[in-house]
């Protein structure tokens, strides 16, 4: 327990944003638990999100619908998730962000998309979001503007106590390190960038303008809060209906983008899980919970590949 706490607290300190000079204008810093609080959270941890057992070839693996932001009290796995973690041979994430080569690819301009030329006005709007996140404008300058926008979108949730340093992938990575559980990525970084960033600069520019408008109009935080609440309650129905209530899918292009970002990646995720399982390894695959929704959900993809899917949390009615 104490060793895990030291690793976890050190990680939080490395992700601190802002400082005393900007505390009033910046979102609250991540809460750093005392030893007593951490012990209580670990002892009383509840399961959140969506957890499924997938079985084939006489072996079990697991799929966990995760959230990329979180609260301090979600820092420890609940009983069912912990039991699954203790039974598997490998933790599979969308990307292994502990891998230096993966981080190197993500930090560079994407090879598949040309440089996006921003007007001075558009650059000013993007820099304003860096300021709102208490980051210097140059902090993400080497990233594609859409990747920077994605970071600013996630960081906006900190105002509501939802911090990326408590995202489930981060916490599972730390848990795996502490327990010597190997970590793999189900996608490669270049492939994920191709899904996230349109190769057509006109479409990329349109996506950037729409995303900035959502942030500027205050439409992002309510979406993040509702999605986090649905995830915490294991409310798959609300997540299934995300495209209808998020106020972010407004036209045919938005719908095509959402399908590309969500459904379009599921075959690759399913293939990665299947490959490891076929090698005789039991896998816990943690992917964004929205991948478990939609007409081509990851669970449907796995079922089509011969896996028997059983929901463990929340228990079906």
List the helices and strands and how they pair.
Layout lengths: L1 H13 L20 H10 L5 E7 L2 E8 L12 H9 L2 E4 L6 H7 L13 H13 L12 H12 L11 H11 L4 E3 L3 H8 L4 H16 L3 H13 L3 H5 L1 H4 L6 H10 L4 H13 L4 E6 L9 H7 L3 E6 L4
Parallel strand pairs: 2-5, 3-4, 3-5
Antiparallel strand pairs: 1-2, 1-6
Helix pairs in contact: 1-7, 5-6, 5-9, 6-9, 14-15
Keywords: Signal
InterPro entries: TraB/PrgY/GumN_fam, YbaP-like
Organism: Roseateles oligotrophus
Describe the structure.
The protein has 317 residues and is α/β, with parallel strands linked by helices. It has one domain (41-313). It has 15 helices and six strands. Strands 4-3-5-2-1-6 form a six-stranded mixed sheet, sandwiched between helices. A hairpin with a 2-residue loop joins strand 1 and strand 2. Helix 1 (2-14) packs across helix 7 (168-178). The longest helix is centred in the middle third of the chain and has 16 residues, at 201-216. The radius of gyration is 19 Å and the shape is globular. Residues 1-24 have low confidence and may be disordered. Keywords: Signal. Residues 1-23 form the signal peptide. Pfam families: TraB_PrgY_gumN (PF01963). InterPro entries: TraB/PrgY/GumN_fam, YbaP-like. This is TraB/GumN family protein.
């Amino acid at each position: 327990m104490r060793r895990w706490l030291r690793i976890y607290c050190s990680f939080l300190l490395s992700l601190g944003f802002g400082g005393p000079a900007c505390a009033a204008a910046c979102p609250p810093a991540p809460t750093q638990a005392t030893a007593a609080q951490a012990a209580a959270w670990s002892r009383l941890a509840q399961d959140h999100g969506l957890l499924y057992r997938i079985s084939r070839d006489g072996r079990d693996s697991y799929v966990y619908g995760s959230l990329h932001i979180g609260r301090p009290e979600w820092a420890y796995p609940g009983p069912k998730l912990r039991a699954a973690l203790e039974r598997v041979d490998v933790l599979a994430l969308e990307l292994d962000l502990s891998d230096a080569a993966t981080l190197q690819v993500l930090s560079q301009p994407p090879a598949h998309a040309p440089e996006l030329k921003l007007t001075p006005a558009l650059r000013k709007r993007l820099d304003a979001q860096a300021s709102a996140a208490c980051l210097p404008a140059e902090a993400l300058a080497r990233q594609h503007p859409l990747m920077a926008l994605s970071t600013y979108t996630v960081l906006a949730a900190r105002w509501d106590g939802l911090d990326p340093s408590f995202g489930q992938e981060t916490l599972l990575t730390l848990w795996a390190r502490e327990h010597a559980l190997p970590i793999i990525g189900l996608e490669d970084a270049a492939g994920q960038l191709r899904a996230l960033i349109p190769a057509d600069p006109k479409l990329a520019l349109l996506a950037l303008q729409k995303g900035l408008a959502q942030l500027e109009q205050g439409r992002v935080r309510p979406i993040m809060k509702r999605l986090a609440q649905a995830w915490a309650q294991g409310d798959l129905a609300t997540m299934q209906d995300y495209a209808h209530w998020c106020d972010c899918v407004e036209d045919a292009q938005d719908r095509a983008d959402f399908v590309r970002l969500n459904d379009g990646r599921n075959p690759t995720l399913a293939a990665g899980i299947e490959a490891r399982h076929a090698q005789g390894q039991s896998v816990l695959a943690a992917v964004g919970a929205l991948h478990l929704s939609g007409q081509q959900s990851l669970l449907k993809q796995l079922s089509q590949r011969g896996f028997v899917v059983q929901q463990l949390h929340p228990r079906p009615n």
